[in-house]
Structures are given as C-alpha cells and as structure tokens.
C-alpha cells in the first residue's frame, strides 16, 4: 500500500499573521491537502511560543526569526537572504516532496540544492511573471540583475504551478525540457460567501489588498478627490495594511477626504471580509500587476460591481472581463474617475439567482484546486520511488 506523501511547503508568510493572496491561498488549500498528504509548512517565526505547532492537520515550523518583509516600500533583500539561507535547515528534515513559491526568489536556489542532495521532487508556484521592463521600473539599473535571477530560477523546478493561464503563457521558452507546468488558480469558497450577509457599515467603494506602491490606492484617492471637487461625494473603505499606509493616510488628509475614507486592518476572518465587501456598492482594484487577483474574484462572487484597469501586468482584468458587472478601464486617473459614478449607480446587490448567472465562478472552487495539486504530489512521489 502506498503511504501518504510527506510534503514540505516553504513560504515566508503565513495566515493569520500576514494577509495577502499567497497567505489566503495556502490557508484554504493546506487543510484540504492535509486529508491526503502529511503537510509541513516551513516559514519565519511569526507566532509567540515554540518553533513548531500544529493546526488543522498541518504542522508549522519556524526556520528563521521574523524579519521585516519590506524596506522603503520594496521587498527587503536582507529578509530574502536570511530566509533563503535558513532553508538549508531542510537538509535535516524528512519529506517526499519539496514545494515553495517564487517569492522572494533566493530561496528557490537554496531549495533546488536541498532537493537535489536529498533526491526529492521540487515544485515551485509562480504567481506572476514580470517582464524585463517591469523589473527595470521596479528596481532601476538593478532590474536587469533581478530579471536574470528570475529567469534562472525558472529553470530550477521539476514542476511549476502557475496561478493563471495568462501566467503560464508568460513563462519563457527557456524552461528545462522536462519541466512540467500545471495551472492551479486561486480559488474561493462559494458556499461561505453566499451565507454571509452584508455588514451594517455601508460604503460606496471598497478596496482590499496589501498597501504597497503597485496597488495604486493613491490613484483611487485622487479619483475620490476629483469626484468630490465636481460635487460627487463618495465614501471609501480600504481594507489592508502595508508599508504605504502612512503615506496614503497623509494623502487622504492633504486631499481633504480623510473624513470619508476609512482604513481597516483589523479584519479577523474571511466572513468579516466578505460582509464588508458586500456592504459596498463597488469594489475597486487598480493594481498595476496581479498574477491572478484573488480579492477581485472574491468580490465578483459577492455580486457587487468591480472596477479594474487594463494595465498590462494586471491579470485580474481577465476575470473582470468575464463578469457581467465588471468594468475594465485605462490605467489612468481620468479613466478611473470617469468609470466610478456609473458603477456606483449600479451598485445594488444582485439577488442570489442573478449572481448565479455568472456560473463560471464555480470553476474556482478550492477543492478542485486541491485535487489538481494532490495529483501532482502523488505523481511526483511515485516517480521518485516513494513507497
């Protein structure tokens, strides 16, 4: 009888200590995967207490101290180096399959060495693929070094999970010949979303995500100020936290809209999040880049109008384009400002029956995604002789 494979998943962030698309993805998938595999997560020491604990059938291990993820609104090189080197500790751990995601890249090289020395299959999830031009925009002259690092890292896994078909298309042709690619998008819990009622605290607009530069919450604030100047007064709830928060709060004060913009970073669970999303008339996501757009998909499932932009690296636009109440506009302040009023006017919640007309959303059930991943785990374990 084939035993359950032991999977070592390496990720520097974990829910509920950190909030973001990667964290929610793992939070939803891990308990489902734990029913068919022994799941161990190796991360930073986010929690108080011993370096290991178990929850929901998953065991979490701290392999490095908690290091700040960001410095000056950019991912910290010190954190990437520290966590990457800490991954060498997996040389002393037992597992059948080794998995990580590509962020923040350096651990991919260390874990390739670990997997090779231990003769285990190595899987990496790529959430998004950046162009050389975007890397240059993000890091200036050092962007080409980061781009080259990214491309070299792509040649290391035995198997790659991608978060969207569009991300799969962006993978370069320089992958190793035997590297397999499986599309495993982020998912949603439709039953949970449907059972949640709108919160009592209403808002005209809502935005959800980590408060970092490329999310362009600053553009949303500019649009609100422009609409206010023309006589359209709207309220906005911004849910999330991050290194740009202080600057965004200051911007709201400078624009004279601080009294109508609420920043929230105290959301305890997904039910509370969905209730607040449903309490808004329009969901706005102006991110310059998204490898998938989990928050956008959740807003679509909540049934409210969704606005996003056609920024080339914003792959969430492909979800919004499929949505009957979605709008994709140019990634400019003027276009965003012009699009908001019509969507607000259309912002009454749909009935459940009307929401179900967008039946394609059901394609993204979390259990379906867990099944795809488990099939890859089992095949990789069997191929490498695990019994």
Would you write up a description of this structure?
The chain has 387 residues and is an alpha/beta fold. The protein has helices at 21-33, 77-86, 106-118, 132-139, 143-153, 165-170, 190-195, 217-229, 245-255, 270-278, 294-302, 317-322, 333-345, 352-355, 366-383, and strands at residues 6-10, 38-44, 52-55, 58-64, 70-71, 74-75, 97-101, 122-126, 159-162, 180-183, 203-208, 236-239, 261-264, 280-284, 289-290, 306-309, 313-314, 326-329. The chain has two domains: 6-187 and 365-383, Rossmann fold; 190-362, Rossmann fold, CATH 3.40.50. The chain is built from 15 helices and 18 strands. The strands form four sheets. Strands 3-4-2-1-7-8-9-10 form an eight-stranded mixed β-sheet, sandwiched between helices. The chain has a six-stranded parallel β-sheet with strand order 13-12-11-14-16-18, sandwiched between helices. Strand 12, helix 9 (245-255) and strand 13 (261-264) form a beta-alpha-beta unit. Helix 1 packs across helix 15 and helix 2 packs parallel to helix 3 (106-118). The chain is globular and about 65 Å long.
């Amino acid at each position: 009888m084939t035993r359950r494979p032991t999977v070592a998943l390496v990720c520097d962030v974990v829910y509920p200590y950190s909030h973001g698309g990667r964290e929610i993805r793992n939070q939803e998938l891990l308990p489902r995967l734990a029913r068919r595999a022994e799941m161990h997560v190796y991360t930073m020491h986010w929690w108080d207490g011993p370096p290991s604990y178990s929850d929901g059938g998953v065991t979490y291990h701290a392999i490095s101290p908690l290091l700040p993820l960001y410095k000056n609104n950019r991912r910290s090189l010190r954190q990437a180096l520290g966590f990457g080197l800490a991954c060498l500790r997996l040389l002393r751990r037992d597992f059948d399959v080794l998995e990580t995601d590509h962020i923040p890249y350096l651990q991919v090289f260390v874990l390739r060495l670990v997997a090779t020395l231990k003769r285990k299959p190595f899987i990496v999830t790529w959430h998004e693929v950046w162009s050389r031009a975007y890397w240059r925009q993000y890091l200036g002259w050092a962007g080409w070094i980061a781009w080259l690092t990214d491309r070299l890292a792509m040649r290391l896994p035995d198997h790659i999970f991608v978060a969207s078909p569009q991300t799969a298309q962006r993978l370069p042709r320089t992958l190793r010949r035997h590297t397999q690619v499986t599309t495993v998008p982020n998912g949603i819990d439709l039953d949970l979303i449907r059972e949640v009622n709108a919160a009592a605290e209403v808002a005209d607009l809502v935005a959800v995500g980590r408060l970092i530069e490329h999310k362009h919450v600053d553009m949303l604030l500019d649009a609100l100020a422009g609409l206010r100047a023309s006589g359209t007064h709207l309220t906005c709830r911004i849910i999330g936290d991050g290194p740009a928060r202080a600057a965004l709060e200051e911007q709201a004060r400078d624009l004279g809209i601080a009294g109508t913009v609420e920043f929230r970073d105290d959301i305890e669970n997904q039910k509370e999040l969905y209730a607040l999303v449903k309490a808004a008339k329009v969901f706005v996501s102006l991110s310059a880049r998204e490898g998938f757009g989990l928050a956008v998909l959740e807003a679509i499932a909540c049934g409210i109008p969704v606005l996003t932009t056609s920024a080339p690296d914003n792959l969430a636009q492909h979800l919004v384009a499929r949505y009957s109440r979605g709008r994709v506009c140019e990634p400019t302040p003027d276009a965003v400002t012009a699009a908001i009023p019509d969507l607000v006017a259309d912002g009454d919640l749909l009935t459940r029956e009307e929401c179900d007309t967008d039946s394609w959303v059901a394609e993204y059930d979390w259990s379906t995604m867990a099944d795809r991943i488990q099939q890859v785990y089992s095949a990789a374990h069997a191929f490498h002789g695990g019994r």
